[in-house]
Amino acid sequence: MKLLNVLQSWGKVLSGKIPMLSIEITRECPLQCPGCYAYGEAHLGEGGPNLRSVSDFRGDALVDRVVQLVEEHSPLQVSLVGGEPLMRHRELSRILPRLSELGVYTLVVTSGVIPIPREWLGLPMITIAVSVDGNPEDHDIRRAPATYERILRNTEGRKINVHWTVVRKNIEEPGYMGRYLDFWSAQPNVDRIWVSVYTPQTDDNSAERLTPQNRAELAAYFNEVSARYPKMSMHSGLMDAFLNPPVSPADCMFSKLSVNYTADLRTRVEPCVFGGAPECAECGCSMSMGMHWLGEYRLAGPLQAKHLIHASLAVGRFSNRVRGGGGGLRWTPPADTQPTNDLVQIER
Predict the structure, then answer these.
(1) What is the pTM of this model?
(2) pLDDT tens-digit profile of 285-297?
(3) How distant, in Å, are the alpha carbons of 74, 290, 335 from that of 329?
(4) In whole angstroms, what is the distance from residue 98 CA to residue 104 CA?
(5) Integer distance in angstroms from the first to the last C-alpha of the chain?
(6) Using an 8 Å Cβ cutoff, are 106 and 76 in contact?
(7) CA-to-CA dists, residue 133 to 146, 170, 208, 346, angstroms
(8) Residues with Cβ < 8 Å from 340, sequence gap 6 or more?
């Protein structure tokens, strides 16, 4: 992260805004991926609604309300997730040009189950990330019907990033990670390979959860092969952050500097995009790793980016109090709005 980006983020917080905004634009998804945090029963809070039960928007209402949220929060970067965002590809074809005109970097995270519209290719400041979790023998079962064959067909001729969430099997099976990186590095339309690691909830006992030995082996592997795979996002600084993650949301830069909305565009996902009660000490989120590494970035002498950010958080709180709230800071609760008749219930 360059100094300019650090100062831009700092300036956003000082002005009562947030650098990052994430919006689950639909509750619909044709996939049934095991371990999907978005459909966890506690994703929106223990005992509260979940992504299956919230109402969501479509058509003009979705377009207008997403743009309204972005204008309200004025983030540096917005992520449009789901559900499966391309279930709303017609609305996205109207939303993305407007966000591009606003000068907001926009990330759309998709399974690749639906063809990516070609008209998105010429839009500046738009990135498409396709989730590919493992090699075909695992991914095609886990993420059906978004199989390798379908992803390759639906992304042909489109510039994409590939996002991989590493689970325990990927580390313990000899040669597995090299096969994955070799295949996607060779695809000419793949610009970057982003790597995250499975982040469990506190009560998660699944076989996908990494052991401490897995985490150490994974960090050593990525440090060893990073030069071999220039498209891969991992480097030694991120691996240091991975091995020493924030122990709680209060210590997490990503949690502090982002706001996340679910599909009713009203309810916030807390304490970060995972919702529920993530096991922060085992966090593998690529954004969290990046922000944690950013916090350690030295600006001058002993001064680190996190020192400026922590100071700006306090100024932002004061600024919001003086203005009577609003501004969309992480700790400012959203307005208590009531559901309207233009919400629709969708069955997943």
Answers:
(1) 0.83
(2) 877 665 544 544 4
(3) 11, 20, 13
(4) 9
(5) 39
(6) no
(7) 11, 9, 12, 26
(8) none
Q: Give whole-number Cα distances, 72 to 10, 24, 162, in Å.
A: 18, 17, 30
Q: Which residues contact 298 (CB under 8 A, 6 or more apart)?
A: 304
Instruction: Tell me the two tokens of residue 122.
Output: 């010429």
8 Å CB contact between 328 and 17 = yes
pLDDT at residue 324 in the model? 53
State the average pLDDT for the chain: 83
Q: What is the mean pLDDT of residues 97-120?
A: 96
The structural domains of the chain, ordered by start, are 3-9+20-28+39-322 (3.20.20)
CA-to-CA distance for 202 and 209, rounded, in angstroms? 11
Residue 70: phi and psi, rounded to 5, are: -65, -45
Express each pLDDT in 193-232 by its tens digit.
999 999 999 989 899 999 999 999 999 999 999 999 999 9
Amino acid of residue 132 = V
Distances (CA, A) of 307 to 10, 246, 302, 344: 10, 16, 10, 44
Instruction: Cite the DSSP H helix spans in the chain.
Output: 3-14, 59-73, 89-101, 136-142, 148-155, 168-172, 176-185, 212-225, 236-243, 253-256, 286-295, 305-322
> Residue 159's pLDDT is what?
96
- Mean pLDDT to the nearest integer, 250-254: 81
